[in-house]
Amino acid sequence: NTEIMNAGPEVPDEENVRASEVTPLHVNTSSSRKQDNLPTQKLNNLPNTVLISKSQSPSSTIDSNVSYGSATDFPSNLPASADASSSSGYNDIMESPGNRSSATTPNMSNLSSIVYNRKIDIHNEEGEEKLQRRIPKHRLSNNNGGSRSESNMHTLPSIPDIPSPISPPRPLDETPSLPNGRNDRSPRSFPRNSGVKTSFTICVLVFGLILCICTLLQYFILGSPASLPFGKNDNSNAGGDEFSGGINGHFSGRNPGSLFDELGRYVIDNYDAVPTFSDFLPGVAGIYGKPIWSFYVNRGQGIASFGVKSKDYPIMEFQSANNAYQSTALLGFRTFYKGHRGGGTPFLIEPFDPSRTKYEQLNAPLQKDGGDDTPPHSAEWESAPTRTMYIGSNEMQIREVDHVHRIETNVTYFTLSEEDFGALVRKTTITNTDKEKALHLSILDGLARMQPVGGKLNGLLKSIGRTLEGWMGVYAADGKTMPFYRLSTEPADTAAVVIEEAGHYCLSFMEHQENELLPIIYDTTKVFGGDTMLLRPMGLYGKSVKDIIDGPQYGSSKTSSAFAAVDDVTIYPGQSITLLSFYGRADRITDVPVFSRRINQLGFPQYKLARARELVAQITSGVETVTSNELFDKHVQQMYLDNSLRGGIPVLLGEIDDRSRSESADDDDRIKVYHLFSRVHGDLERDYNNFVLEPTYFSQGPGNFRDVAQNRRNDVVINPRIGSFNVKLFLSFLQADGYNPLSVEAVVFTIEDKAQCERISTTVVGHADGHRAQREALALILCDGPFRPGQLMSMIEEQNIILLTSPSELIDDVAATAEISPMAVTKDGFWADHWTYYIDLVNSFLQIYPEKEESLLYDQMLPYFFSPRIVRPRAEKYVLSTSFDGFGHHVRQLDPSYESPSRVKKMKQFINNSSGWFEIKANYQHDVAGNVFKSTPIAKLFLLATLKFSTRDPYGMGIEYEGGKPGWNDAMNGLVGMVGSGLPETYELKVLLNYIQKVNDKYQRPVTVPKELASLIGNISDALDLLEMSDYAKSLKNATNTPTLTSTVPSDLFQYWDSVATAREYYREVTNVFSGKTHEFSSTSVAKIIERWIEQVNMGIERAMILGNHGYNKADMKSGITPTYFSFNITKWELTGKKNPDGHPFVRAKKIAVGEFPLFLEGVVRMMKTIDKDEVQSVYEKVKASGLRDKGLGMYTLSSSLVGQSYDMGRMMAFSPGWLENQSVWMHMSYKYYLELIRKGLYTEFFDEMKSGMLPFINDETYGRSLLECSSFIASSAFVDPSMRGKGFLARLSGSTAEFLSMWVLMMIGPNPFFMNNETGLVEMQLVPALPSWLFREDPSAGRNEKFVVQYKLFTSINVVYYISESRDLFGVRPMRYEIGLRDGSRIKVDGPTIPSDLATNIRRVVFIDFIHAWY
């Protein structure tokens, strides 16, 4: 035991845990083997902290009687200990699921005839329709699985230091080591039979006996342990000890002049009296952890809802924000104190009681004519408690100081990390702030309404909540301390009855009394009595807490509670007690005692809180920035975190040797890129989205194509080693029809070679005959279809397969061997803008790897995604229906896409006979020979350009919204029905065509495309020939002035549109399967085609500018600002003779007229991508003077006034002006606008706009929530209620994070850090930032040339420092010289503005470089 105690890693005081001192998650993904060829360095001020990595997996063995006395020696991921003396019948499940203790090796005879399920999650609109692959039963032999030796334990690697940018670089001459001299940093490689000398053991036992005697004497002299004064909490302690005082003790609030407290958390005073907002904990439980989702509001005790996987599986019922603001204080967490001071007047109070909120109105005078203006409620104001909220990156704390009763209450929430079970942890600390009298309390602390497990309950709770209570029950895992909440069966009226075995649990104990669980009061009526509104604890009026504990409780057929109960405790002056409660889900009731033994180990909650903080710090440290503005620096990290939660954090799997640890995924095909922690941005305010956080290791959830593509834009810039992964992934989703699936899933792994499956299973399970059944089981899992890393680990747990290697070694070996395949799901309709993000991904890749452009575009082969849905031809979606007034008729475009039976039939050819589900190749386009058809990326881009060029509207201006969905502005949903189009997509088409033209001219290589596409290109060319010979074209050539355009589309343009659309429809009809034949276009042919198309696109844009805008603001109509959207009214038609399912006749268009709309910012933003700096300057001045500028806020709105527009255009017209998409400040589009300013070199304008229109520089009180977190929209000055103007709504996980990171890259790194030297043909590097003088920190003690500095992390780990000698703007200036530090301690000086090729490529490989200093 002594050796085990010494082996535990130290956990530093959290004041010393800075983001600059921890390793970024997506750099530290090396395996557990020592990297002999890579230098390492000791961590700054963090000597033995276990950092996150792939190799940090759950433990497998530990002595059951070991306790950990403090946070400083508590190791990560200790398993639930097995109590050998237990007689409760849990001997077969002493180890935690997945953390199998060698002390209780499972008997293989009990595991025969196990059926396991492989689940590849395919998520539909409701959240998670499962495509479950069933694997046939097999039998495990009746052999003991054996135990694990110490040499096979999971260990962590020595992790290279990432020095703080604050500190000067240090020589890399040390290898970090643990206190026992080992350098493996393993938290649980503890020898079980350590050979401790008998005499030493006897000494330890004698010492323990003496401690026990002292404790008994203390008990009889001073009273029960509950009344002992644990910890020292002096009222004068502003910061306090980390776990005794710091987060739970007496905070002085924010630092002077700062919005942050001592731990860097955002502070909101009187949080429950300011306007409402919602937020969430990030749900990051580590690579080897199982996350819990949780949302909170600034009302009551914060937490408004939490649960597992999705809102369909709540522990506390999911509520929309408007309901959560009202109900959280009553239905959420509650605390009740019943007590007295030294026999004085007894009291019953509730901290955070909403009736005692300190509203400003209580202190407002009641004006009287000539009378007293004393506030009538001033006494209530003075007696109201002071409340504060502290918002951390992975925690939330609330604090109440009750001046009347002299009690301070601190509650901290965080999610449990790096365990094989998930939990929301609640830490309640109660402090007696009286200087003289002791405080005697009875306490109830917990959740007022605890939901059971019983399938998808969210909808049922809201629709049949009372009936559903009939299934509810509370079962006891162990007496009164382990309630288990579940339904008896799943509530479905079906022939197959599903008995519910899983349940929710609540475990609670008092700090320093970990071995004594607190009783849980689950019978709501015992607490609230007859008060069914749960306003007051009427049960405590007539009974004591002890009476309730000792009395009977009933949990059947009603919704229960989960209150931890303390019947009697004495808190001496200045002292505190802390209650720790864990709320989560268990698969079986027998798991709960196992969890209990795990969390009860001394120091466990404190260590897990430190790890929760470190986990997020490790993620955000990758973009650590140090400027003169602390708020900006923290905002950068918050935006990076939120961007990562929507797009995912890339980690590299398959690093099995030194080469793979230093190469990119492009250079070593064993390396696989896998994204973690992603999810759809659903929350209390975005209640329309169904988020998913998979409760597995390597947790991730699906995301919408647009969201994921945008938020991964800077992946390769932040982490160059992922290479071209995202470019190839998203181009693989491109379909033959030019569209893509909606929902992007995590990639899946497959291994086809059975010999490799057997090799891996033998390596990780062992050669022994007794392991044969487990080897076969693992080999079958690996070779019988697709899987993800988290699902693989879950199946290993379910099969009770014992690994002789660490899980990280298994995952790396599997990844290096396996192939990866993209996964996605098509849903209703195709979005018109999704394709516009391909070039962004390509450009980001070329910022880092400019020399690999040709190889990427011409030497790779990618498949086409195959969707069961297809766009209908016009004759099957142009529908004649009655107009709104009921007297006329109009033609609308309805149900534009459908699921094609013929395509479904094709996919069914690829059903796996053993599983009954689709194989991966069912998702890919095939040829007639049954082969997956592939093309080069340049061919796919050429196909995309062809399809989009052929989809231009009848006037040749915008791209038609023909697939059922609009473009980026999804609130224009009605525009689809109006046969609408978008000019933003036309500008993006111009960008695409220009890029194809550039690379075609550059590389002069042919492009091979499907024969069907070549035919379509030929048809387009024929139609253009006719158009160019038409009367309309001749009139343009002869015109001397700008042509006059009418709303009616000229007949020649109409004929061109009709013929091209017909050709496009035929192309789609014949490409259910490609013929397999191809056509090669020479580079000369491609150049002629693209040049002709660009000319036509430019002509269409000119027509759009002539037609212009139409709206409420007359000045905007003549502003010269580009329009954005158009509608097309079919004024003449003919019936086809067919009707849709609703009985409306289909028509063919014969004549069409165009309709215009007011100004929208999107058109401006997309246009700016196609024009030069001078033109952008002109556009900027026009926009600033237009109705798009909110002069009151100094920001830009999504649209100008929409007054007078038709409701047909979409839901944005249903909203009040200034709210949601109707003329609000939609921050994503505003940030796109700001990004284009800095991209085009308008630096002065950009930084002027930043100070008024961007976070974190706006007024915090006006914004109404944390300035670190970007909202989706801000209520503009157009909103009717002045008090709401400037406030942010729908916070976090928006596309604005991607735009902000792109701005950060341009500000800190520059537009093209790597470029090709035209003379040498080699890649070189340069750092050309764009930084204003006011962001430089002044260092008075520095030398003359280093007086002003800015620092940041490059590629997540390289410290970059910029020096200037005087305060000035640094806009697009190249440095005079560099100094580059290597990790072996050497330094290289480079004179001049560029870094030569050899050094540049090593910087790009990251692992060898420590720092870069640049002087300007």
Task: Give a structural overview.
The protein is of the alpha+beta class. The chain contains 38 helices and 53 strands. Strand 44 and strand 45 form a beta hairpin. Helix 17 (754-765) runs antiparallel to helix 20 and helix 26 runs antiparallel to helix 30 (1083-1107).
Please outline the helices and strands.
Blueprint: H1 2-7, E1 117-121, E2 130-134, H2 198-222, H3 242-246, E3 266-269, E4 278-281, E5 293-297, E6 303-307, E7 314-316, H4 321-331, E8 333-340, E9 347-349, H5 378-383, E10 386-391, E11 396-402, E12 407-415, E13 423-432, E14 439-450, H6 458-463, H7 465-468, E15 472-476, E16 483-487, E17 503-510, E18 520-521, H8 524-528, H9 539-542, H10 545-550, E19 560-571, E20 576-586, H11 591-599, H12 604-620, E21 625-626, H13 630-647, E22 649-653, E23 672-676, E24 703-704, H14 705-711, H15 715-718, H16 725-732, E25 743-750, H17 754-765, H18 772-783, H19 789-798, H20 807-817, E26 819-825, H21 838-848, H22 853-858, E27 862-863, E28 869-871, E29 878-882, E30 889-893, E31 897-899, H23 901-908, E32 934-935, H24 937-949, E33 959-960, H25 974-977, E34 981-982, H26 983-1003, E35 1007-1010, H27 1011-1028, H28 1031-1038, H29 1051-1070, E36 1078-1081, H30 1083-1107, H31 1114-1117, E37 1125-1139, E38 1145-1156, H32 1161-1168, H33 1173-1184, E39 1189-1190, E40 1195-1196, E41 1225-1226, H34 1227-1239, H35 1243-1253, H36 1260-1263, E42 1271-1274, E43 1288-1291, H37 1296-1308, ...
Parallel strand pairs: 49-53
Antiparallel strand pairs: 1-2, 3-10, 4-5, 5-6, 6-7, 8-9, 8-14, 10-11, 11-12, 12-13, 13-20, 14-19, 15-16, 16-17, 17-20, 18-19, 21-48, 22-23, 24-25, 25-26, 27-32, 28-31, 29-30, 33-34, 34-37, 35-36, 37-38, 39-40, 41-42, 42-43, 44-45, 46-50, 47-48, 48-49, 51-52, 51-53
